[in-house]
Design goal:
The chain has helices at about 40-45, 50-70, 70-80, 80-100, 160, 185-200; strands at about 5, 30-35, 105-110, 110-115, 125-130, 130-140, 145-150, 175-180, 205-210, 220-225. It is α+β, with helices and mostly antiparallel strands and about 230 residues long. The chain folds into two domains: about 5-10 and about 110-225, no CATH class; about 40-100, no CATH class. The chain is elongated. The chain starts with a strand and ends with a strand.
C-alpha cells in the first residue's frame, strides 16, 4: 500500500480532523498534533544560517581591505549592495520557512504518523507505527526537535516528495522527519510510547528507548529502536 496520497480530490467532511486524509477509524485516536517552527524551518532546512554566513564573508571581503587602509566608512559604503542582497535573500528564506510551517501538519495517533505537507500541492503521508523501525530525536537550543523515522524494509517514500521533511543525506534510504517540532523531547516520548503500544499485539520485537551519545552541542538523541 502506498504511503503517498494527494489531497486535490479529498472530500470535504466535518468529521475529518484537520491534517488527516479522512475520518479516524474506530479505535484510533490522536495523541499529538502540531506544526513545525517557522524559524526552525527557515534556519535549518532552508539554510538561513548559511545564507547569513555567505553574505558576511562577502561583506568582509569588501570591508577589510578598506579598513586596513584606514577607510572603514568607505568600506561600509562599498558593501551596501551586499547587505541589501543579504536582506533580500533572508526575506525569501523567511517566507519559505513560514510557508513550510503554515502548510504542514504533523499528527501522531495510536496507530500511525500522518504528515500533511506541501506548499504548492498538499500531500499526505500515512506511516503506520508498526512500520517504524527506529525513531531518532535531535533537539536544539530553542527546545524544538527533529524526529527522524526509519521505516521497515519495503516501505519506500521518495526523498524529493518528502523534502524538506526528510532526514538530510539519506537519499537512497529516505527517512521521513518531523521538522522543528515544538517541545521535541515531549513529542518524542509520546511517539516512543505509541510505537511500543502498536507493537504489543504483534509477535515482532518491541521497540525500546535508547539514549545515544550527544553528537553536537545541544543535540541529545533518543531512539525508539527494535530490540532483536
Amino acid at each position: 500500500m502506498s504511503a503517498l496520497r494527494t489531497d486535490d480530490d479529498a472530500i470535504v467532511d466535518d468529521r475529518i480532523p484537520e491534517g488527516l486524509p479522512g475520518p479516524l477509524p474506530p479505535g484510533e485516536r490522536i495523541l499529538w498534533q502540531g506544526r513545525p517552527s517557522a524559524f526552525g524551518m527557515a534556519s535549518r532546512p532552508m539554510h538561513g544560517g548559511f545564507v547569513v554566513l555567505w553574505f558576511a564573508v562577502l561583506a568582509a571581503w569588501t570591508i577589510l581591505p578598506a579598513a586596513l587602509d584606514g577607510a572603514v566608512l568607505a568600506g561600509l559604503k562599498a558593501s551596501w549592495p551586499t547587505f541589501a542582497a543579504c536582506a533580500a535573500a533572508l526575506t525569501v528564506v523567511g517566507c519559505l520557512g513560514w510557508l513550510a510551517s503554515w502548510t504542514t501538519t504533523y499528527t501522531i495517533t495510536n496507530r500511525r504518523v500522518v504528515m500533511r505537507v506541501g506548499i504548492a500541492i498538499s500531500v499526505t503521508f500515512n506511516l503506520p507505527l508498526v512500520q517504524v523501525e527506529e525513531a531518532g530525536l535531535r533537539t536544539f537550543a530553542d527546545g524544538t526537535g527533529d524526529l527522524a523515522l526509519r521505516l521497515s524494509k519495503g516501505t519506500r517514500v521518495a526523498y524529493l516528495h518528502l523534502w524538506p521533511h526528510a532526514r538530510p543525506w539519506r537519499v537512497t534510504e529516505p527517512q521521513p522527519m518531523l521538522r522543528s517540532v515544538p517541545d521535541g523531547a515531549a513529542v518524542a516520548a509520546i511517539l516512543a510510547r505509541a510505537i511500543v503500544a502498536a507493537r504489543i499485539p504483534e509477535e515482532a520485537a518491541l521497540p525500546i528507548l535508547v539514549a545515544r551519545p550527544q553528537t553536537q552541542a545541544g543535540a541529545p538523541r533518543l531512539v525508539a529502536a527494535g530490540a532483536r
